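Quick one - inputs below.
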Amino acid sequence: KAGVTQTPRYLIKTRGQQVTLSCSPISGHRSVSWYQQTPGQGLQFLFEYFSETQRNKGNFPGRFSGRQFSNSRSEMNVSTLELGDSALYLCASSLEVGETQYFGPGTRLLVL
Amino acid sequence: QQQVKQSPQSLIVQKGGIPIINCAYENTAFDYFPWYQQFPGKGPALLIAIRPDVSEKKEGRFTISFNKSAKQFSLHIMDSQPGDSATYFCAASGGAGGTSYGKLTFGQGTILTVHP
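Output:
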């Protein structure tokens, strides 16, 4: 069974731009969570989706948003990029809410 | 109250040694405690997980010890190998009514180096 896939793997943007990251969960998994990983703050929870509904949101500004589609694929969007948004963005999927989360390889975003 | 504190930040052991990584939490609603291993350029991979109804869980060379009263849990790696060199993260989730099960709160990570 294929694992969690994330596209693109690498991205370079400039301040003020917006970016959309994509995540395809493991087949059959219905829950998707997003995390931001930086050297300074570590792994921080962004949001969690289940059945196209956001169940939980972390402490990030409104510039960070996401959605989930009927096929469980998810996207996250960051608008008005700031230098501090440079990070590895990880997507994790699980069969159901509360089940083991399996992570993708991440999208590394660099904001110049 | 949502924090998970992990120590040490880094750890160096010789091959065959038993590195121990510790985590402490504050939120008594947490009831799921996984450990993840991350290699450079990769996403975290689940190693082993425990729930508070048991005090110890072993899978292969990896053992979690859990102390509910102290709100602490630790990872032991038996017979460590150079291939175990990676960053290890503890995490926790759970909440009243299951509202936060999908939200993992991570420790800061431990960089483990196993010398041949």
